[in-house]
Design goal:
11-stranded mixed β-sheet, 24% helix, 33% strand, 286 residues, alpha/beta, 3-stranded mixed β-sheet, GMP Synthetase, Chain A, domain 3, globular
Length: 286
């Protein structure tokens, strides 16, 4: 069994275990959606499930080499003409690709995106290059759940063949299937959806205060509670926002307490894995 930890939470990370057979099954489901792949260029860390599937298991099954780009994510490695390359993207990868559109033109590329919503740079690159690109929805608990082609108008998602939808009165995506992490028989994700067919749906947003900052999961309601505990008497609120680099982010507003820079340092000292707020602003009460 192979461990994968949830990332970017405001509490202890949770470890979920998966079998090698589950990883192989997921890679085999996703590979046909990408067409021919001769090489993989991965910007997704392989210790997270998304990076492991596309940067380790899929190329192993396809018998193709991998270039590990996530260790130096601000550099675009050389590409080889005539080699169809799968680019495994995080939200922050797309601005890098946009800066190098001139280099990318003429190369045979296909891209995959996951971990957070697409950004304006995503659609710029797809449009400028006429790029085939696939978006994957999933989590550490479920593995990949659904896919769709990347388009500006945001078409519906389609469940993968081995994923079964279950009723959920609260509108959250509830699924079962053979690739769920060990000990789970079903899982209700934080994704709010509206089904448009038996196996297709629209993504409406995330429940509660959940955001994924460049793929790192963050409960903004827990962040606000943490700030209130660190600064007694402080009223804190986190506001989810879109971000052109990371896809999703959050701003932190609070009423009383330390200066914003000091509050940032306090948050980092309490939880080094916590994605720092994009904006920290003290709003004095009347």
């Amino acid at each position: 069994m192979i461990p994968f930890r949830t990332s970017g939470t405001t509490g202890p990370a949770v470890t979920w275990w998966r079998g090698q057979d589950q990883l192989d099954a997921e890679a085999r489901l996703l590979l046909p959606l990408l067409g021919r792949v001769d090489r993989v260029l991965s910007f997704a860390p392989s210790h997270h499930l998304y990076g492991r599937i596309f940067g380790v298991e899929l190329p192993r099954l396809a018998g193709v080499p991998v270039v590990t780009a996530w260790t130096d994510p601000l550099v675009l490695p050389p590409l080889t003409a005539g080699i169809r390359c799968l680019v495994v993207c995080l939200p922050s990868t797309w601005p890098l690709l946009r800066r190098h559109v001139g280099r990318l033109r003429g190369n045979d590329l296909v891209a995959v995106h996951s971990t957070a919503c697409t950004t304006p740079a995503t659609h710029d690159v797809v449009d400028l290059l006429g790029l085939d690109a696939v978006e994957v929805l999933g989590s550490t608990e479920t593995g990949a759940v659904a896919t769709r082609p990347i388009t500006r108008d945001g078409c519906d998602w389609t469940l993968l063949p081995d994923v079964e939808p279950l009723p959920a009165a609260d509108g959250r995506l509830h699924v079962s299937g053979p690739r769920l992490a060990a000990s789970l028989t079903s899982h209700r994700t934080g994704d709010l959806v509206e089904f448009t067919g038996a196996r297709t749906f629209r993504h409406l947003g995330r429940s509660g205060g959940l955001v994924k900052v460049n793929g790192r999961r963050c409960d903004t309601e827990a962040v606000a509670a943490l700030v209130s505990r660190m600064a007694p008497g402080c009223d804190a609120r986190c506001v989810p926002v879109t971000d052109p680099i990371r896809g999703e982010h959050y701003d932190l507003y609070y009423s009383t307490g330390p200066e914003p820079a000091e509050l940032r340092r306090m948050l980092a000292a309490v939880d080094a894995d916590l994605p720092a707020p994009r904006l920290v602003r003290r709003v004095p009460t009347p």
